[in-house]
């Protein structure tokens, strides 16, 4: 793949953005997806760096979630902010990762991201339910690097 823009079609990107919108209807949590061609270094450290670059640490309840994918390296990370990590078990994201990974192994990246986003929203709802007055604090658009 020559450009990260070729990883998903425009229609697939729209489906992912819609999944984020739907997932956030039931939670005050914020979900973002970031795609890169390759990751130089440790993927978790890169996800953390992007988390701050994308200002995801600025949510009121510290409940942002970044799904980071390094396409050519075939690696991804789900990174949750402090507010989430303070209240959930250590294996909180394992089932979400498993669902995503099963789709990724089949080459169905869009479906893996969509299901990961929906599952993230369902899990966030348990700890950060939507309340009257909640506002969408972060963009739902896919960021790319």
How would you summarize the topology of this molecule?
Elements: H1 10-23, E1 30-36, H2 43-53, E2 64-70, E3 75-80, H3 82-85, H4 94-105, H5 109-127, E4 143-144
Parallel strand pairs: 1-2, 1-4
Antiparallel strand pairs: 2-3
Helix pairs in contact: 1-5, 4-5
Explain how this protein is built.
There is one protein chain. The protein is α/β, with parallel strands linked by helices and 145 residues long. Helix content is 41%, strand content 15%. The chain has helices at residues 10-23, 43-53, 82-85, 94-105, 109-127, and strands at 30-36, 64-70, 75-80, 143-144. A four-stranded mixed beta sheet has the order 3-2-1-4, with helices on both faces. A hairpin with a 4-residue loop joins strand 2 and strand 3 (75-80). Helix 1 (10-23) packs parallel to helix 5 and helix 4 packs antiparallel against helix 5 (109-127).
Which structural class matches the secondary elements? Answer: alpha/beta
Report the average pLDDT across residues.
93
Shape, principal axes of CA atoms: globular
Order of strands across the biggest sheet?
A: 3-2-1-4
Report how far apart the termini are: 14 Å
Tell me the helix content. 40-55%
């Amino acid at each position: 793949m020559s450009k990260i823009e070729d990883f998903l079609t425009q229609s697939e990107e729209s489906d992912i953005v819609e999944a984020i919108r739907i997932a956030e209807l039931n939670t005050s949590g914020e979900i973002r997806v970031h795609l890169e061609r390759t990751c130089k270094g440790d993927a978790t450290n890169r996800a953390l760096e992007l988390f701050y670059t994308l200002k995801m640490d600025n949510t009121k309840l510290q409940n942002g979630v970044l799904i980071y994918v390094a396409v050519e390296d075939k690696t991804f990370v789900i990174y949750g902010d402090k507010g989430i990590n303070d209240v959930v078990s250590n294996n909180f994201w394992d089932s979400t990762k498993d669902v995503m990974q099963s789709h990724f192994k089949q080459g169905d990246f869009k479906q893996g991201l969509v299901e990961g986003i929906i599952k993230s929203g369902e899990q966030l709802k348990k700890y950060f339910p939507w309340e009257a007055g909640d506002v969408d604090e972060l963009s739902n658009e896919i960021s790319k690097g």
